[in-house]
Amino acid sequence: MSKTKDVILQLSGLYKIYGKKLETEIKAGDIPNHIALILDGNRRWAKRNLEINKKGHWRGADAVENLLDWCEEFNIKIVTLYALSAENLDRKDNELEDLYELIRMRLEKLYNDPRIHRCEMRVKGIGRMELLPESIREVLTRLDNVTKNYKNHFLNIALAYGGQYELVDAVKKIGEKIKVGELQIEDITKEEIESNLYTSHLPQPAPDMILRTSGEKRLSGFLIWQSAYSELVFMDIFWPEFRKIDLMRAIRTFQERKRRLGK
């Protein structure tokens, strides 16, 4: 649906009716078990609204908290968020330090959030954690420890993440196993590779749907291996603007596609 139609619906007072109808329709269909999101457009939202970049990132963090509520409502079991790429770490300005502080604060808030225990949610950072500041790694370790036995829901936060780096790291782990005699070359299988990826702890590493905001139509290296058969949904809105109705529209798009999974 176009932005113009959105405005018309809101002005006409039909928006709530439309939202309720859409919600009823998607709840009657197949809800994706694992969704992954590329949270794009924070800085462009800030620029368009004549705000500093920091304000865009804070609004984006608020949108993440709302997203988790909606995913709980729709009983989406696994959520993977692309929050900070390995390439982002090359920034040399104060924006990166602001991002680090925001991430640390929101992780601390998540650690104290009763929702993770109510939902029995396993929370884990995926990526090259060693590249992150100690303050962030410390909170992630506490989150991992306190939720490591939960198996009902999963929240993966991709930080210092790069899909190519993930594959490199998996190859290194496999190479080490071969080096010490734990694995033979002929025993390298698809399953062996998957067991050495950052997502190996998940009951379903492959997302059913990958959603990217901001209008960009590429994955930017996100979950290169895991996304082989994922449905891709690109939305022309900036992440800080993301609403429940946008998630519902993405789910409806997913439901309208006939998934063949290579068959």
The low-confidence parts are: none
Give helix and strand order, one letter per element, not per position. HHEHHEHHEHEHHEEH
Report the major sheet: 6 strands, parallel
The mean pLDDT is 92
Distance between the termini: 31 Å
Strand content: 5-15%
What's the gyration radius in Å? Answer: 19 Å
In short:
With 263 residues, the chain is α/β, with parallel strands linked by helices.
Please, could you describe this protein's structure?
The chain is an alpha/beta fold. It has a domain at 31-162 and 207-255: Undecaprenyl pyrophosphate synthetase (3-Layer(aba) Sandwich), CATH 3.40.1180.10. It contains ten helices and six strands. The chain has helices spanning 3-12, 15-27, 42-48, 53-73, 94-111, 115-118, 134-147, 163-179, 190-194, 244-256; strands at 34-38, 78-85, 121-126, 153-161, 209-212, 231-234. It has a six-stranded parallel β-sheet with strand order 3-4-2-1-5-6, sandwiched between helices. Helix 7 links the parallel strand 3 (121-126) and strand 4. Helix 4 runs parallel beside helix 5 (94-111). The longest helix has 21 residues, at 53-73. It is globular, with a radius of gyration of 19 Å. The chain starts with a helix and ends in a 7-residue tail after the last helix. The model has no long low-confidence stretch (mean pLDDT 92).
